[in-house]
Predict the structure of NADH dehydrogenase [ubiquinone] iron-sulfur protein 6, mitochondrial.
Amino acid sequence: MKGSPVSSQRLSSWITSCIRTCYDLAGVSAPHLTAHSTRAQASSTAFLAQVPIQDICRAAVWSSVHTFTAHYALVQQSRDDAAFGSVVLHTVNETFAIDLIAEQPVNKVESRVISCDGGGGALGHPKVYINLDKDTKTGTCGYCGLQFKQKHHH
């Protein structure tokens, strides 16, 4: 009936028919097509077009990349790439920031008390003051981990 809402079954049938026609026009025999296979085709095509896997999962209402890799990825490369991407996204290096700070040299300063604001601006942190009273003392900022040491004049 004209003007009536289209059912999901009717829409799936149209999409399946369109995909079958594309296979025919390309001179390739079409596999058995179902609503499930059209979803697989669409998500795999999006992935191969380098659409971020999180966007594909969000559009398909999948809570996990595993759903795509296990059930919908048509090309093995898609499965492998998506699985690799998932591992990279979920790998956490808990000492990354600590390692970066450890690479920074100790800042030599003239005064006995210094202030640190992490570089200031939007990327900084609240200003803190650090006492550098002792000859061997290296002061460390509790926010950003930068280290300071007083220069001694002999």
